[in-house]
Amino acid sequence: MVQRRGNLFMVSDRVFFVNGFNTYWLMILAADPATRGKVSDVFKQASSIGLTVCRTWAFNDGGWRALQKSPSVYDEEVFKVGTDFIRNHRAFGIDFASAHIYPDSW
């Protein structure tokens, strides 16, 4: 678990440097079998250049492949794809930080 000590991030009492990238589109493309391979390619490339953290949206409201189709109505398949994707891509050594639509998410 990442913790803060002063102005440093720490993991297991070692300094953790964030080398990251943003993928607002991850949930949408990972939920579609036709584009899922493109997402895997991005993670292979990111890992190969030393990126260690991916920030992604934990929401996709309305529209195509929406996580939340309407208020309080969710697509369980999109939920499943998101959690499966994150679990399966840990092999690349990349951690995930998810951004939520809630006002206090940062």
From TrEMBL:
* Alphabetized InterPro entries for the sequence: GH, MAN-like
Q: What are the recorded GO MF terms, alphabetically? A: mannan endo-1,4-beta-mannosidase activity
Record-linked Gene3D superfamilies: Glycosidases
TM ranges: none
Name it: Mannan endo-1,4-beta-mannosidase 5
Q: Which species does this protein come from? A: Acorus calamus
Gene that this sequence comes from: MAN5
